Amino acid sequence: MRLTVLRDGYPINGLNTPLHALADALAAEGVPEQCGTRLRPVRFLARCLGKVEMIRNVVQVRGAASIVPLSWPNALRAFPYGYWREIIPWVCDCWPQNYDKWARIFRANRVRLAFISSRGSTEAMSDAARGVRTIWLPEACDPAAYDPSRPLVQRGIAVLELGRKYPPYHAAIEPGLREHGLTHVHSRADSGKLLFPDVASMHTALSDAVVSLCFPRSLTHPAEAHGLETVTLRYFESMASGCVPVGRCPGELLELFGYNPVVEADLSDPVGQLLDLYTKRNEYQPLVDRNLRRLHEAGSWAIRARAMLQTLKELGYWR
After folding, report:
1. Can you give the pTM of this predicted structure?
2. What CATH class has 2-140+300-314?
3. Which tens digit of pLDDT belongs to each residue from 114-172?
4. How far apart are CA 231 and CA 214, in angstroms?
5. How far apart are CA 195 and CA 187, in angstroms?
6. What are the distances in angstroms from CA 307 to CA 18, 29, 114, 245?
7. Domain 143-298 carries which CATH code?
8. Are 89 and 113 in contact (CB under 8 A)?
9. Which strands, in side-by-side order, build the sheet including 133-136?
């Protein structure tokens, strides 16, 4: 079996998305890369065809298969190889409201095997897409891209909020942290600007933060999550940067690590908890160090790529 990994170009402005990162890790394990959508006109065509679900398998060349990292229900990254080659998707951002769309994409491309980043979606898609074998392969990070070297007592940012917020929690802590003179870095909803101008700046902030807030979408945006809770990049990159993750630990992360690496947020007294943590931050250094060690064992893209290839080897797709 000739196995390749498809990608739609390379990271822009240093942002290595989970889709690019998995492709990189597979390439590092010896899987040849192919890029069918690097040119802008081709990307535009693939995006349009994907939106109307016109990327579909016509014929499968025997002995050829491609791993295709996908996000959201659009098969654009399979273009054009999906028309004549078996594709093996790795799907992230697979949410309940899109299960039917993903099932149609799987049927149109005659998918037999799919890896999915959320355990809950993996189980649900085995019912939504009958005949497709679905396997859980969670998100991860590349620890080498982050800097955990600065101990907690030498860090200047007390609390860092990246990406989406848990609104009631944010509203409770912002005035309290400001009143106590602690540095609280977060984006402002009315600014219309990104929190950091580039990825390097974001990584620098992570390496200088004591606490990184990590809440799952099931808590921050329950109407969108529809009860689905999954671990995402934010948890892994926070631990890779040597931060104390504070928030809520998804069951998937507990399963991967074998213990809870997150300091569960005290929703009844969030400011008091954060002040106490910051004052006693040196006492949390052993947790940070333990999380970093475990991350290398259970949370890197290299680990994910090897797990995927081991499964593919057992199924006859890989040498």
Report:
1. 0.94
2. alpha beta
3. 999 999 999 999 999 999 999 999 999 999 999 999 999 999 999 999 988 999 999 99
4. 10
5. 5
6. 16, 11, 14, 26
7. 3.40.50.2000
8. no
9. 33-35, 2-7, 64-71, 86-92, 113-116, 133-136
